[in-house]
Amino acid sequence: MDRFRTMESFVRVVRAGSFTVAANQLGLSRALVSRHIGDLEVRLGVKLLNRTTRSLNLTGEGQAYLEFCEQVFRQIETSEQALAPARTEPAGTLKIAVPKSFGQIHMADAVVDFARVQPRLRVTLILEDVGFSRGYDFVERGLDLAIRISSLQNASVVEEPLGSVDWLTCASPVYLAQAGRPSKPADLAEHACLVHVNVAANDRIWRFQGPKGPVTTKVNGVFFSNSAIALRKAAVRDLGIALVPRYAVTEELEAGALVPVLPRYKVAQRPLFACYPRAARVPQKVTIFVDFLREWIARRSIK
């Protein structure tokens, strides 16, 4: 067992007053943090914590060991700060996972631009739909950062907003000429719909903001995909009505290959997040990339 990691877990548990909170902060499971404390006590041969169902209390030996751990961490922090002026640019590797369609249309350009201004970093861009349930999924997959268009809602993962993405319903003129044009969301139940999966809790429930307030309707899917590009192709080929991010169909809308459906009913914007494991110290390469990406998106008004 890594000695430094067990010391870090011990300090986190004491400061948080909870194994669960400490585990979330560290991006680890509660069971692993508990094991860290147990291993520490076995190695040191003393009891560090008195645990009950309602509280955690330091023993005398635990208090002394806490002071020792904090002194070690302060020394490490001081030494690292002393080295910082000697290397102002981040170095090493940065591995980023991005949803396929957004990555192909926009993010590849952003990452290439970042790599050009940070030559000391070896940057890897992975195009995949990113589904994490735990902070340490990042570690297991060797990722530093992920870009998402939906929230993980996980306390062990930091989600930094980068901007918002517009969504809309659209279809080809040929499809609408054949099937008719819906005038309200409820009409979608009678249409073939193209469904983007893994974005909402229930992908077949489409939500709109209408003239009289919010409206929801359940659609009948005839084609499903986790790729907005695949849904765009299906819509262009007259397969049905798609609910997709605007960035995926901008050219088709301008060319008239696709047209908006239900223009009086707006689809809510969805936030774009940069996600990374929660930790006591965020790596410099991650913070620099997030700052760069936020400015890059703002300059281009990506919707």
TL;DR?
The protein has 10 helices and 14 strands.
Question: What does it look like?
Answer:
- It is a single chain.
- A five-stranded mixed sheet has the order 4-3-5-14-6.
- It contains ten helices and 14 strands.
- It is α/β, with parallel strands linked by helices and 303 residues long.
- It folds into three domains: 3-85, Arc Repressor Mutant, subunit A (Orthogonal Bundle); 88-163 and 271-300, Periplasmic binding protein-like II (D-Maltodextrin-Binding Protein, domain 2, 3-Layer(aba) Sandwich); 167-268, Periplasmic binding protein-like II (D-Maltodextrin-Binding Protein, domain 2, 3-Layer(aba) Sandwich).
Determine the CATH topology of the largest domain. D-Maltodextrin-Binding Protein, domain 2
Strand fraction equals: 25-35%
H/E element order: HHHEEHEHEHEEEHEEEEHEHEEH
Task: Give the strand order of the largest sheet, numbering strands 1, 2, ... along the chain.
Answer: 4-3-5-14-6
State Rg: 25 Å
Overall pLDDT score:
85
The major beta sheet can be summarized as: 5 strands, mixed
Count every helix, treating DSSP H or I runs of 4 or more residues as helices: 10
Write out the CATH superfamily name of the largest domain: Periplasmic binding protein-like II
Through-space gap between termini:
47 Å
Task: Write down the domain tally.
Answer: 3
Overall form: elongated
Task: Give the strand tally.
Answer: 14
